[in-house]
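Per reviewer request, we include the raw input and output of the structure prediction for the construct analysed in the revised manuscript.
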Amino acid sequence: APKPLALNLPDAGSPEALNTALLSAYLVAYNDETARTPSHTALLKLLQASNALSSLTPKVQQRFASWVRSLPANEIRSVSGVVTPYADALPDLFNILGNCLFTEESAKSKGAIFTPTWLAKRVVGAACRHWRRLNAGIAPSLAADLSCGPGVFLSELASELAESTKIIGIDNCPEYVSLAHLLTHRAKNVEIHCADTLLTLRS
């Protein structure tokens, strides 16, 4: 089981919860770039370059940007110090952050049930082994998670499959999509969309 996150997260479902989760995810995902404690402007530029905010409404993006600019540098360093130890266990951290975004009732209404990292590893590993038995020497052209949440399955697929395999993630929750973008930002073959899977498949 992942260790508890020693971070004072605001009440689930509040704008501050999203802001803190995004900042935490960003700082650990871009640990190499943030180790030198860049300026607030550099933080925002790197976050926007990751495409993590693209699924959020302009109002939410602006609110997050204003919040980051208002933070004292020592508070950013404090958050970074808490999440950096998760650099080798990112999927665990992103599940924790995803669970902080909404109240339990709201998460249930979205159908949000996050797969533990150990189970995602087992499922993806078994599926990939089965594929290789049936298709020796041939990489799949496409893999997908049609309800990707914060991206744990996408991360595991990216670690198991060749870069030639296109990996697609879809979720109808902009906040989860933002986390998934950050979790998988180093995987060039991962593409994530904010959409309703059922409506997309029907069209």
